[in-house]
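Handoff note, outgoing to incoming analyst
You'll be picking up this chain. Sequence as last confirmed:
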Amino acid sequence: MNIYLVGGAVRDRLLDIPVKDRDWLVVGGSEAEMVERGFVRADGQFPVFLHPETGEEYALARREAKTGPGYKGFSVEYGPDVTLEEDLQRRDFTINALVENEAGEVIDRVGGLDDLAQRRLRHITPAFSEDPVRLLRAARFIARLSKHGFSLAHDTFSLMKQMATGEELAALKPERVWQELKRALPEPEPWRFFETLQRCGALASLLPPLAEAMTEATAESEASDAAHGEQPDCEPIRALKRAVAAGADPQVCFAALFHSLCQGLARASWLKAALPVEREYLDLLAQLQGVARFYPGTVRQEAAATLDLLIRGRAQQQPERFHRLLLLCGVVWPAPPEQLAAWLAEAGRAMASISPARLSEEGLQGADLGRVLRERQIRAIAAVADEVKYINHTCG
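Most recent structure output, in case you need it:
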């Protein structure tokens, strides 16, 4: 039985990229031997085992044969007779099929080292087109590796264009699309994921509103002759780039990307239908849309708008989440004034100085209490705004 380090760990080490996870390939071994050594079965369909101490994944070498549509339409054979070469032939890209033996020597049976040197993402065999998930993985790897100079090999891109029009793409489940999209968001250049899918023709089937926005941006740019040969950006992609530049987390990046595509009730429903997005992603997007009409007035230090933004953003109850919301606002509506954070802090203190409990002591209740509370909070915030304007005018 021979054990090899395989895939991303070998690729990333050779590229001087920090290695996050290590996967291992077992050639010449059996399930019984793995269990006897204390490994625990980790997958009901594939022969993948967890190391009893490190928890790292060890997979038995296997063969695959296409039996039906979709990424699950495969039969799997594994056992001691499966060779290293057979296992590597079933993998997606040459740079992911590099292995390292126990002596630390890199073994390359598919041309991965040459593609690594040429900064080229290339599929191994035409069987690549049998799994529609690989089209998404290609886009995600470009999002990860484009900053290192990688691009798609011409024959791989041609194959992806064929895949984008075939029945395999239709068999792709929304859950799998979302999984790959979510994994693309933290990558160094996540917009490459969507640009790659747009170029090969797959985005129109997967996320039609985004594909439409990108197509319109291209048409407008060509009409004005302003692109100078570069790929023009639509607003969702520009917002995503700003989010990445601001060091935003994946949820902020998600909300920045989809905000302009989900305006109004008629358009907001398409996203939920297209992708099984987790609640925390949708909540942040909904929070952004909830404060959208108040943000411009807040920037202008208008008291009523500022109060509404503080209330809708739950600034007092959830200050950390409110800070993320402000980051997101600055990404979607760029270049807010430097004084915005200080202004909101002052306005927040003014808002908190008007206590509902104190108004209750004055005998106010129900709707009257709410009305007077709002009126006095607006006056308190307006007084702070007047003071700030006076100081700025005096200092100026």
